[in-house]
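pinging the channel bc i need a second pair of eyes. not urgent but kinda urgent?? the chain im working w is below, pasted from the shared doc
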Amino acid sequence: NYSLNTVDICPVGALTSTDFRFKMRVWFLKETKSICTSCATGCNTIIGTREDVIYRQTPRENDHVNSCWMCDYGRLNFYYLQSDQRLLEPQIRSEGKLVPTDWPSAIAQAALQLKQFSGPEIGIIASGRMTNEELWLTSQLAKSLGVQWIDIVPRREPGDDILLSEDRNPNTNGARLILGSTSEPGAKLMAIADAVKSGQVKALVILKENTMHLGIPVEQLAQLPAFIMVNILSNEATEKATVVLPACGFAEKRGSMINGRGRLQRLNRGVRPPGNARDDWEILRDLLQAVGGGDSLLSIDDVFRRISETVPQFAGLTLSKIGDLGVHILQMEELPPMHPSDEEKIEQAVAIQTTRRAIRQQLHDAPKAAAVGTH
């Protein structure tokens, strides 16, 4: 559904969204340029916030990605960040139950648990929703621990041949590139699940995913000597973890992703995370250092610099050089040929956009013309 785009193009503001109407004055909003993370298209967006509350997302013009449109699903897909299921404090299991703790203690406990096992006994399930920076730190953590069992969870749902992609992970391409996977995303998941069930994997690290989707019974997760979760929301599996590390959502952090057409884009922080949640890259950096596999990385820009030094497609780039509109870095051979209607759709979108600008300019100039006529 794309009906909310009519609100964006209405020249006089007569059409309004019931989702946003009367909630906040537009001129009070802080606007942050970012991207939608609801699918692999990566529509460019503006996040409207005030006092660390997200009130709306609107499309931002980028003719390389989404012109000036976005689907309603992506536009409204931010309320989970304000859910009462948010994880707010780091927790460790003590005497059979999870108890809140401070960050140094939680990181130290997670590292201690992981270091008890060899690489073949550890599994890492990462996510195509993670940024490139988080994925790179995950790859370094896996190397430091000698982990062989590592994969991401694929998400495929029907697309609409307009903007909504079948791939509902925003950074599948980044995961493929940075984790160095030569197989399809999810190809190792069943093997990891079987290794957990058989007892071969004794330590499991879950990054921004729900293990319930992997077919691993909760009872077996509860038997793991080390079960470390980095996530935003609590779920059934969270209750069985040995260490829980609360992370940030897409609007609460900076980073980069590669969309389905190979374009490297930035997401930016619009609000602060709730409670004592931390930025994912900081959690992974501290965990990497605690297991003895990393040196000092003071900022996410430092992490991106490391990526540019080790991944050829990122060579010569920095987060600032990506710019507001992104940079094309991958040639996607697997992309389907352009539909015959695509060019026509783009031309129609550009024509509507031009008309909208002209009407706005006329409305802006009308009072001036009237004032001149009275003299």
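so The mean pLDDT is 89. and The domain at 91-321 is CATH 3.40.50.740 (Rossmann fold). — does that match what u expected or am i reading it wrong
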